[in-house]
Structure to design on (149 residues):
């Protein structure tokens, strides 16, 4: 079990979506995917994209309310909600420094046998994730993040 963070953007292609299916890679930020296993905190994803976790909880609440009232949410609304939480690339960039500190703290605490080279790859994944968000937003695309946990 773990935490999976997916980035979506306007006009994302099927190839781009498929590239995010990485077999739980912790080094695939460049395609818009971050992964942390549930081996203990701290969790860097919660530092980078706390709104994504809130988004998933709110969707669950909305669906529960609809179910309790005997109604169904329209498919187009469900599609929109499933894209993820709208996110600013600048916000991600502002949080990157504290996120990298959290990544390093997590590696030291939870995975102390990790080589410096492997730790650097994980850190680079978060940097690449933010760089991708900046790139897509510079292209005029809206950014969304979704947490699966």
């Amino acid at each position: 079990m773990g935490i999976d963070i997916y980035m979506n953007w306007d006009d994302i292609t099927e190839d781009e979506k498929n590239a995010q299916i990485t077999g739980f890679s912790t080094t695939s930020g460049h395609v818009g995917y971050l992964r942390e296993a549930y081996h203990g905190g701290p969790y860097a994803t919660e530092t980078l994209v706390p709104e994504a976790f809130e988004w998933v909880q709110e969707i669950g609440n909305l669906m529960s309310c609809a179910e309790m009232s005997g109604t169904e949410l329209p498919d187009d609304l469900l599609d929109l909600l499933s894209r993820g939480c709208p996110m600013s690339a600048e916000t991600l960039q502002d949080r990157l420094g504290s996120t990298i500190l959290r990544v390093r703290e997590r590696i030291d605490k939870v995975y102390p046998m990790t080589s410096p080279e492997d730790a650097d790859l994980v850190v680079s994944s978060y940097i690449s994730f933010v760089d991708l968000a900046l790139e897509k937003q510079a292209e005029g695309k809206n950014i969304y993040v979704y947490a699966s946990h």
Remarks:
- The helical segments are 14-19, 44-48, 50-68, 75-83, 89-110, 116-138.
